[in-house]
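Homework-ish question, so no full write-ups if that breaks the rules, but can someone show me the predicted structure for this set?
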Amino acid sequence: MIEWLNALVQGVLLGGLYALFAAGLSLIFGVMRLVNIAHGDLIVLAAYLGLSTTMLLGLHPFLALAIVMPAMALIGYALQRGLLNLTLGPDILPPLLVTFGLSVILQNALLEVYSADPQKLAGGGIETASISVTLMGEGLAIGVLPLLTFGIAVAVIAALQWIFYGTGLGRGFRAVSDNQDIAQLMGLNKAHVFGLAMALALAVTAVASILLGVRTSFDPAIGGGRLIFAFEAVIIGGLGNLWGTLAGGVILGVAQTLGGKIDPGWQVLAGHLAFLIVLAVRPGGLFPRVAP
Amino acid sequence: MAEPLLSVTALNAHYGDFQALFGVTLHAGPGEVIAIIGANGAGKTTLMRAISGLLPSAAEQVRFRGQPIGALRADRVAHLGIALVPEGRQLFPSLSVEENLRLGGTVGRPGPWSLDAVYALFPVLAERRRQASTSLSGGQQQMVAIGRALMSNPELILFDEISLGLAPVIIRTIYDALPGIVGAGMTALIVEQDIGKALSVASRVYCLQEGRVSLSGRTADVTRAEITAAYFGVAA
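A: Not a homework solution, just the prediction itself:
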């Protein structure tokens, strides 16, 4: 019984990481209807930027975020203005093809620069620290890092929610998402607004990637898997709903750890199954944004 | 006469292979209220889109305060002081009434219009400031659309079909509000299908027919028969 409870708790906490992967994907889809196939590889790119920063400057990975976050935001803005904006239009195919190509390019460039060897960010004591809690009369050890990851995920989602619904920037995001022409008439340059949205998305991605790199090893090829998890979390939660994305990440995480509890080989499969069940039963996701 | 605030010269506009405007020429002086009338498909909305920058044209075909703006993006045109109240209101459904208005103030031009001034003009909007813009009646949505355009403190405001689909009592309310808007010296182009309404507030009128200016003149000088001929293209 305690083992299942443990798997459940670990799954919930893992869901926080998936929600962080997914938040950036969800944000850019919401603002500009762009499906970014390269999202997973951008996560990996950020993890390697974190690696270089920690190696060169001898910083703790969490402190490296002070460099990696603005760097990813800049890359995001430049990528959007210089490339992705040119692909956006009535046809949804060009952005898919271009981001797919970008994914291939990123993967191979990382392979060239960093080799295929698995790397890891050295987090120090936090990697193994845990706290003991008593749940339903049984003792349970909860890792500090997963707990911190989950807390950061909640904080990031809350911050994004506030940006979207409480600031002028978010008002611009929603307006451009509603009607690009009319938003332009109001003096908003949509190319710039899209650039800011991608910058914000990749800044969130930077947070996710550092937590990923401290938690587990990574290599240039793992982007595709992270992309799938991010997609599944977004779809399970419902498009356009950030808190739903957190719930989607949690459901995916729980399905994976419970599946892994039954048989270690079933971990990823159980996540996909949970996703397929939600897709079959509620194609719009569990918590789609209420149509205005 | 004074240097025109807006001059449109031999403007052609295309949607793909379809040409919607053929050599349209018109001008508007500071503080003038001008009616633009014409049947469906005459090119009135296309003209609005071209002036506001949504439909790019050659730079010199549209001049504003002596500056060529025909080739500018719509957000640049908005910063220069031209605002459009689009046909069909086109509010942002994800934004509340007040957020729609605030978004209209994005360009941050100084002037008399602010949230308070818009709420004073249309008090009903103040009561509904927190509501989703789509929950309002058509007339109230039109008030939001007008307020949103005013929030940019434009020098030139374009009204595209402001009375389309609204109840007569609402249309009267909105037209009653017009003097309070243009009285302060704002220039306005009013696109209307309701000829009587348009002529009652405008000093000059242009009639479009199949993408060309078929009649222009002072509203006091043009006769009903001339308008009918210019509107339908047949002698009445």
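Now go work out the reasoning yourself. Hint: Chain A has eleven helices and two strands.
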